[in-house]
Structure formats: structure tokens, C-alpha cells
Amino acid sequence: MLIGLIADSHDHVRHIQKAVKIFKERNVELVLHAGDFCSPFTIPPFEGLTLKGVFGNNDGDHYLILQKFSEIGATHLGSFGEVTADQKTIALYHGTDMPITEALEQAGKYDVVVSGHTHEKKVEFVGNTLAVNPGTAHGFDGESSIALLDTDTMDVAFIELN
Q1: Which tens digit of pLDDT belongs to each residue from 35-82?
Q2: Domain that holds residue 35
Q3: DSSP assignment, residue 78?
Q4: 86 sits in which H/E element
Q5: What region holds the Calcineurin-like phosphoesterase domain (predicted)?
Q6: 161 in helix, strand or coil?
Q7: How many angstroms separate the CA atoms of 28 and 102, rounded?
Q8: Residue 152 and which of 3, 17, 27, 90 are 20 to 30 A apart at CA?
Q9: If you ran DSSP here, which 8-state letter would residue 40 be given?
């Protein structure tokens, strides 16, 4: 199964649209967003994808973000989510509190931990747990990236958006 990973899009609609196009072209079956959409207007571009997401520390109007998720048939998991996909258990957390992120990675409970917040790409095994940060979709005058996770091989490929 191919899963699209995105985080820290921070209102950058053009990069979100690029990411969505890539996810659709690659036939991803699920998209996980690790938070910091920021504004509700960034949710509709994901329509047509199976999207699950969590809040980040910069997400503004939680009520309207939840409403936009509902309007496109997406699932919002609150501040933390557990997702099962292709018999893999995935933790989805923005990463605001680094000790929590590290505890999730070290717990041995999850096959994959997806986080964001640092805006830095990361892929490493912590014991048997694959820890992934797709980087920032926004870019902030630097590299803008998303990632693809193949649950069959547990390989992660980063894709630049700028």
C-alpha cells in the first residue's frame, strides 16, 4: 500500500495542490497529514483523497477545520491518531512536544510514527519502529517536501515540491 505523508503546509495552497496532484498520480490509497494546515481554506484541495489528519500547534480555527474535513469526507483525529493501514499500526502526531514524539517512537507499539513540526525530513528506525517526518510542505524559502511510504517494503521516498 502506498501512503502519502504531508505536514506543515502552513496555508501554502500552491504546494498543497502540487502534493495532491502527486498523490493522485501515484495512486496513493491514504494521505496522512501531521498537522499545521493553519487555515480551513487549505482543506478542500484534498477532496477526492482518503485523508486523515491531526492538529498542529499553528492550526487556527479548529471548528472550521473540522467542518472542512467533514465537507470533503476526510477524517480528523484530533491532536493524536492511531491509524491501521495494510496491517501496520501508525501513530500520527504533529510533534509539538519532542519527548512525546520520542516516546511514541521508542514505545515499540507502532510500526510507523509520522510526525512533523520540526520542518526537517527524517526517516529512521527506532528499534522496529519506522519514524518519519516528511518535512515541510510549505518550504519557508527552503526545501518543500512530502513523502511516500510503501507499507510492503517500509521504504520512504521524499519528493520536493519547489
Answers
A1: 999 999 999 999 999 999 999 999 999 999 999 999 999 999 999 999
A2: 2-160
A3: T
A4: none
A5: 1-153
A6: coil
A7: 27
A8: 17
A9: G
Burial of 86 (0-12, 13-18, 19+ CB in 10 A): middle
| Count of domains forming the chain | 1
Q: What is the pLDDT of residue 56?
A: 98
Cβ 10 vs Cβ 144: under 8 Å? no
The whole-model pTM stands at: 0.98
**Nine-digit cell string for 110:** 507502532
Report the alpha-carbon distance of residue 89 to residue 131 in Å, rounded. Answer: 12
Do residues 115 and 133 touch, judged by C-beta distance below 8 A?
A: yes
Which domain CATH number covers 39?
3.60.21.10
Distance CA 48, CA 162 (A): 23
Give me 94's grid cell.
Answer: 504533529
Total Cβ atoms within 10 A of residue 112: 23
What is the C-alpha to C-alpha distance for residues 79 and 54, in angstroms, rounded to an integer?
5
**φ, ψ at 16 (rounded to 5°):** -60, -45
**What single string gives the DSSP state of each residue in 95-160?**
-SSHHHHHHHHHSS--SEEE--SS--EEEEEETTEEEEEE--SS-TTS--EEEEEETTTTEEEEEE
